[in-house]
Amino acid sequence: MRKKIHLVVLFGGRSGEHEVSLMSARSVLAALKRERYEVIPVGIAKDGRWLASPNALEAFAAGRLEGLTPVTLLPDPSRRGLWQWEGESLKPYAPVDAVFPVLHGTFGEDGTLQGLLEMADVAYVGAGVVGSAVGMDKGIFKDVMRAHGLPLAEYVLLSRREVEADAEAAADRCEAVAPYPLFVKPANLGSSVGITKAHHRAELLAGLHLAARYDRRIVVERGLDAREIEVAVLGNAEPRASLPGEIVPGEEFYSYEAKYEDDTSQLLIPAPLSAEQTARVRDLAVAVYRAIDCAGMARVDFLLERESGVFYINEVNTLPGFTHISMYPKLWEATGLPYSDLLDELVALAQERKRERDSIRRER
Ligand SMILES: Nc1ncnc2c1ncn2[C@@H]1O[C@H](COP(=O)(O)OP(=O)(O)O)[C@@H](O)[C@H]1O
Ligand SMILES: [Mg+2]
Fold first, then answer.
1. Number of domains, the chain
2. Is 136 in the pocket of ligand 1 (CB under 6 A)?
3. How far does residue 153's CA lie from ligand 2's centre (Å)?
4. What share of the chain is helix, strand, coil (3-state, %, to 5)?
5. How far are the Cα atoms of 10, 81, 126 from residue 121, in angstroms, in the given order?
6. Which DSSP string corresponds to 267-308?
7. pLDDT digits (tens, 9 = 90+) for 314-361
8. In a 3-state reduction of DSSP, which class is residue 25?
9. Is residue 244 part of a domain?
10. Is the shortest distance between the CB of 258 and ligand 1 below 6 Å?
């Protein structure tokens, strides 16, 4: 019998997507093959504490964190595995072969956690430090896409300071990008938080002030009349793209409410596209993935402009929603890879990447 893989499943976290993460983790924990994995669930509380227990997910969902075991992972590779706090000292809690961060947004998807996992010298699912960070920052991401000649809607990047110092001048710069509607986004959030679709200057000014509350940097871009097409990408050196899917938002755009609070939005899998369009968007998805040096997985989101038929890259999510009804796993299911086999592949890719990292020479 093969030795079981000690797999830490991390969920919760300090971002606004804490609750979304719990939903994703519920599906992941339910689908992991127990004959293959020794699963170690660890929740990260909103204040950043790491708390472990075989039933940590239920405890987090119920908001009852007392009684869970405080644990930590150390950046010192001579002290491997999870450690448990006992008063002011540490003792071993569990060995760790790989970590599956089922965390969305800040401190989970943005490269910070990935940095800790690199320091700890452990295999982990998904993109590395750079891929995560570039995927998270909508401003830098666009700059990288542009450098690769990949298609983007016109945009401008502003700083919070600019908005605070002279909002009218900032609005002038935005209006020079394209006619209304304009989309205003904080560079670093997800789940549509802090995003405004501005139809005129007053909405633009309000949107700039709103976005400035959420980030130091703000992206403003041309609003497209477009269909929303998403592609799932999987792999390390040889990434492959799933069939495309389409989101039909029930509201004017795919807002936080549309994503999580009502069920007016529809997923079409596969997206009703021509064979040429399907091939084009799959190729683009892989090009985006490679451009940010992604690994493991990512969902690449496009806006297909109705009038021109042009695919514009909207954004990439390196830790996409992972519930059994989420787009990323559903796209793989439609492409012939069932949910629990997808998890196996992601863990195998994490281990492959770790072996690759171990083979890199660091001295002369
Ligand atoms: N340039 C745009 N033109 C038209 N719709 C857009 C544009 N940018 C964003 N949207 C709409 O807003 C939603 C959220 O924007 P997105 O950039 O995907 O942010 P998030 O990271 O919060 O998902 C998109 O799913 C889409 O419905
Ligand atoms: Mg999005």
1. 3
2. no
3. 15
4. 35, 25, 40
5. 16, 10, 15
6. EESS----HHHHHHHHHHHHHHHHHTT--EEEEEEEEEETTT
7. 999 999 999 988 999 999 999 999 999 999 999 999 999 999 999 988
8. helix
9. yes
10. no
